Structure formats: structure tokens, C-alpha cells
Amino acid sequence: MTERGKALVEFNCARCHAIGKTDKSSHPDAPAFRTLSKRYPLTDLEEALAEGISTGHPDMPEWVASPEQIDAIIAYIASVQQP
């Protein structure tokens, strides 16, 4: 499941976000995925992904994920969290 999640974030998110354990986000407003659990519980991402993530800056595309995609994305993001 984490490989599917990795593929999804590589395709949909990696243009701006750091999605791995050591890479750097190319967009200054895009947090590294490995630090997301420090900001809020990862389970809080489920609703945002299901409803379509949208933010206050125009560079972030709106994307609605299916329940299966959400599970895979959360599993992948959990796998790269810093302690």
C-alpha cells in the first residue's frame, strides 16, 4: 500500500513538496511530508483528501482522492515521518 501511496504523491505532490525522508520542498510554502505529523494528526488529512485539498495559494491544485487512494497516501506519509 505504501508503494501505491508513494506513486500517488510522486505524481500529484512532488512538484512542490518534499515527499521523501531527506529531500527539500521546491515551493517555499509547501511543507515536507516527513514533518506533517508535527503539524497535526495524519488522520486529519483523510477529510482534506476526500473533499479536495485547496489552500490559500494559487499554485496548489485541487485534487480529490478516492478512499483507496487516501489510505495509500496516509500509509506512505506515515512511513516517512521523522521521529
TrEMBL record:
Domain Cytochrome c, residue spans: 1-81
Pfam families registered for this protein in UniProt: Cytochrome_CBB3
Keywords, sorted A to Z: Heme, Iron, Metal-binding
UniProt name for this protein: Cytochrome c
Organism this protein belongs to: Mesorhizobium qingshengii
